Amino acid sequence: APASERPAATAEPAGKTKKHLPVWQETILLLGVALVLAIVIKALFVQAFYIPSESMEPGLVKNDRILVEKTSYWFGGTPQRGDVVVFKDPGGWLSPEEDAGPSNPIGQAMAKIGLYPSGGHLVKRVIGVEGDVIHCCDKDGRIRVNGQALDEDSYIKNTPGMACNGPMTTTCDWTAGPVPKGTLFVMGDNRSNSDD
Predict the structure, then answer these.
(1) Is 157 a catalytic site residue?
(2) Which of 134, 170, 169, 179 has its CA nearest to residue 152?
(3) Which of 53, 118, 124, 192 is catalytic?
(4) Residue of 19, 42, 53, 55 marked active site
(5) Which of 51, 80, 167, 194 would be a feasible disulfide site paired with 64, CB 3.0-4.6 Å?
């Protein structure tokens, strides 16, 4: 086709750049994106918590900060014996001091979106799952689940003078279970200081 019939190409003048947002708008946009990402990450992937008491020593010490991953339970996975789990205080296990979250307004706001550990949660180890019968204890002081003694030497706190691996408020002769459907039987690792 003759040059006169071709559409004219639109050319931008040399040196012209794209228009950028003002700094204040860009800052607000970036903060909004960061907030949405934080909420998505907390809801689906990981969440921050802190250890409220001495009940999980020696592995987890009071006021330690931890990140809990949630992906293990996405496709029907469930907690297994030996797993460490975090759950809401079912009512009255924590003292008011242990139950309190952050006290400053910035910490409180960050806790609401999962960027800072919040209060009101417990951290314990799964001892029994649905259907399990837990007995304390065998002749060596070990917790038994379904008749089998648990080997807890790698995580339980060794406390001289403890007669068994049961929690501090009980005798060394009790049975719990079978664990009801949809529930877990949990205990702290520091049995001499874990009122489970």
Answers:
(1) no
(2) 134
(3) 124
(4) 55
(5) 51
